[in-house]
Amino acid sequence: QQQDLLRDMQNCFNHLKVEENKTETVSERHRNESINIGCTEFPDYSEEVRSVLKAGWLEKTPPNSGVIYQRRWVQLDSEYLRYFQSPKEVYSKRMISLRCVDKVVGVGDLKFELHSQNRTFLFRADKTEEINDWVCCLEKALSDNRNSIESRNLFFKRGSVDFSFEGYLELMSPRIKVYTIISRDKLYLFKNREEHFQGVGVTDIDMRMARVKDGGKRSFTLTTPYRTFSFLAESESEKQRWCDSLNECVSRSLSCDGVCESLWRVVSNQQCADCSALMPEWASINLCVLLCEKCAGVHRSLGQNVSKVRSLKLDERVWTDDLIRVFLQLGNAKANTFWGANIPPSESLCVNANDEHRLQHITAKYVHGKYRKYHTLYGQQEALDSALCKAVQSSDLLEILTLLHCGADIKCHTGIPDFPTPLSLAKRSGQSAQAELLTQNLNTESFESVLKDVSIQSRRGYLFKPASSSRPITEHKNKADFARRWSCLEGGVFSYYKNDHSKKCGGMKTSDIICLSVNSPGKHVYEHTFELYTEEGRGYLFGADDANTVRNWSKAISMAMLPTALFDICGPCDRLGRLRCVEGSHGIGWFCLSGFKLHVLLENTVQTIDLRKLLSLSHSDSDGSMVLVWRGGTLHVLTDRRPHFVGWQTCIQQKSGAGDQPLSHQQLTELDVPVTIDRCLDHVTRYGLLSPGIYRKNGVNSHTTKLLERFHNDARSVSWSESDFSVDDVANTLKRFLREVKDGVLNGQDNAKSWLKAADLEDKTERIYYYQNLLSNLPIVNRATLKALTHHLLSVQHLSNENQMTKRNLGIVFGPTLFQTDGTDVKEPRVVEELIQNYCSIFNVSESELLRQLNLTTAALNKHKSERPSSKTTSSIICAVDLERIEEGSEVLVQVGANMTAVELVSEVLDHKGVKPANEDFWSCYEILEKEEMDRMLHYHEKVSPVYFSPGLQCHLLVKKNHYISNILKYLEMMEENVCKSGTLRVCEVKSERSKNYCSRYCELSGTTFRMHKELQNSPCEREWPVKELKVYNGYRSKLHSPTPWGITLAHDKQQWYLCCDNEDEFIEWTATFFSIQRCGELIID
Fold first, then answer.
1. H or E element in which residue 533 lies
2. Domain that holds residue 226
3. Residue 28 pLDDT > 80
4. Burial of 762 (0-12, 13-18, 19+ CB in 10 A)
5. Rounded distance, CA 934 to CA 369, Å?
6. Where would I find the PH domain in this sequence (predicted)?
7. Residues 778 and 901 reside in one and the same domain
8. Shared domain check, 462 and 427
9. Distance, CA of 401 to CA of 284 (rounded, Å)
10. Final residue of a domain: which of 544, 561, 578?
11. What total number of domains does the chain contain?
């Protein structure tokens, strides 16, 4: 009963958030039943990997997870129903064999279910037609499968499949144990063996495109074109058996050597088109050249929009007869008469060229077209298009290749209505090879698009520039500091002269510009200025008298700087350039800041981040790096000592939301409600709906001021417990914020007066219509805020029998608050009352849904009140705690008080689940940092509430058996009273995801101090920490590539050090010593 009550309360609070996207209320602690295996490279989906019967977006819910739907890309083929994180992903989160499905049933409310013997899978669509289409396709696929079933296995199409090898492996990222099967040319992953027999898997890996590599003790990697999988076997011998079986599977898969033999019959195809290495086994199928493995790797780094790299052996399905015919007719020799017509001997590429030289040459050849042979019609767009339409009807493939990469529009109009494009014209003419060449270039960038529009990036005119000095260019400059300079941008060079006749000039290559910053008006004596920063760390300031001049110059320079992928996204911007970041290609990412939107180009994918909606923004005190966390992922921006980086830090901080600005400039939730308002509403909803006189009673004024200051400084980092601030303190903070925020919720006094005029209208229908118009004219953030606030007040009023806050009382309180006045106008409360009374009509909300939520609120809160002890208890909140493993279905909802200890939480969780520990079992509570892949055993007296609500950490609480405690206690008994430990360990300082340097250090743990020496203990101490100030975690980040799995991570302030032990015994000894010193020998309750 208590469990049901807690679930009711949790659902109630989730509903009161008024969020259409329910996933926001569940936070990062919500566990999925599926495994997310994201790609680091994405395939070109013009080529279908499998025959898909139907695909589209659906919402699904894991078993026993209530109304929490997750949006997934779902694909149905003849064997499986798979769902993915996005359409680009190759590896599914789940795959359901149609042979395990008994029936598909539509269940109303835009939903349908798949029924199997052991599971029911629920999906939801947006439209009834979409549901009917899915059900129809599934029923047909199920019918086809039933007609062909002759199996004893529910997962594989042929039930009595002979597996090459099977067993459990540990997947390192995400860190989870998976049941794995090698069958024919694929590797299948399952959550466990039982799910395999039930017909439900995670994903499959095509071994025809894979490479197996030994990774050291018990580990190995499986590399595919789209990501690298790291596995850990149970033993060294088991690992060897897996590697042998996987290599055998790869060898069996590589049975298609016919493509190589066919293409190598052309003599020029027996050498790499770039470096002349013999017998190339790769190709760029849009550039029409054969490549060696090293050059293919460089081509792949350019992105598929430039070069689509495919293997002659592995990508069997790509090599159609028409594509083979293209390469036979062209060959590397003919292709290079275009691509490499003008390569000087000094710039040619040799077989032994290093990676840097290889990248420079291939980029110049194919991206910049430096060595190409210009077509005679180059620069004449209409003539090029006409020539292409003529060429596709002939047999001249080289002419088509030349035209496509000299500016001809592949989608130009042919002038023939029945065959409007060159592709349709080629097919009509029976030129299948020409059609194939056009198809492969449909989604790629021509040379012209890569070079950008010359007219845009060429510019001349006068600008004002201050003379060079030691003063930073960011300091205010007077008019006397500026001199008029003739400036010129062309040919990839920005130059400036004393006048338009001068020959002596200064300047820079646009490729050397790493940052362009457009300053706010009035920063210098010239109203409009912009700054340029170069690779060498120099800064340049330019200004003009009018905004258009600076706008046109900054646009031209940005077009000369930016990668093509950012052209269409980045309009007028405040700041753009390159920054070092962990997630970027070769450690570099392109950033464009426009208003509150930060556009980031990483690995040919553009991410757009609304800085106001960041989940966290942190700066490292030690190295100055920034970490941005938003709903789409995490971005690590590394520090740079050059002057442009400080400007980036300042701009990103300013644009991430400020507490003293209007609502639209505040830190926001995903639903465009300021974080300050959202946090306050949520707290009052949880703890104050039944509080008599809520919002009429004033909290402690000093508490309100303190909490409001914290919100102003950084709202997203604010967290508190009920013991820190009373519910009245929080309610008062909300009122003061609404009263003091710049321009208010109603967007200024002029707009506020319009709302008061509406209240004078006598006809109710006319009043509501007027309110609706006023609401639609509010900015998005103001409109979302007013809706969230009104819904909250409606919930308060719905429980007015408990809290005495009727519509009238709420109007009296919030009228002057919303209108930011002294409260003398009687129409202000009336507006608030009418917003509450006509909430559904004004905000276009379904009355049935609103009534259902309000009734649920009343029932849950009344039930909670009736079962609550009469005596005053410590404030508590509902927390989700996992039992034994972190996965869907293992969560236990527990009321955690501010003073609840770890041992009390363990007892509570085990009681909830009916688990009776055996005498030899010892259960502990662990803090799990899933992202960091580490865990820490909490001391039995440690309070769990501060751990659960640790700001900035995605941590979970997990209750599980402690398998090490008996060994730890035995070791400490042997040590008697003198508990100490010393020895040589391999140590790595965890500075970033790329920290991989391990150094041997002599470590000493004695008394109350942990010391590290560079050599023996007699050498000077290199590092020293008080043991009780350290947090000691078991485990390490998988990206550290530790030499052994036995590791301890020490956390002190924002630093992390990883200690690598040689074996499990050594790991236990160090762990025991740390625990004993930190906890004064009290490890367990006697």
1. strand 528-534
2. 167-253
3. no
4. exposed
5. 49
6. 51-143, 162-251, 456-562
7. no
8. no
9. 13
10. 561
11. 8
